[in-house]
């Protein structure tokens, strides 16, 4: 099975969905869909 690495911190993930969730939560922060409207 192929592991995918986070481009920011090199953490390993099993699929793109896990990686996407990790990046959104740790590196980008919550967005409008999660209820954070400070940036908008």
Automatic annotation (TrEMBL):
<dbReference type="InterPro" id="IPR013087">
    <property type="entry name" value="Znf_C2H2_type"/>
</dbReference>
<protein>
    <recommendedName>
        <fullName>C2H2-type domain-containing protein</fullName>
    </recommendedName>
</protein>
<feature type="domain" description="C2H2-type">
    <location>
        <begin position="4"/>
        <end position="32"/>
    </location>
</feature>
């Amino acid at each position: 099975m192929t592991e995918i690495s986070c481009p920011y911190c090199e953490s390993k993930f099993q699929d793109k969905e896990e990686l996407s969730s990790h990046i959104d939560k740790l590196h980008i922060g919550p967005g409008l869909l999660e209820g954070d409207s400070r940036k908008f």
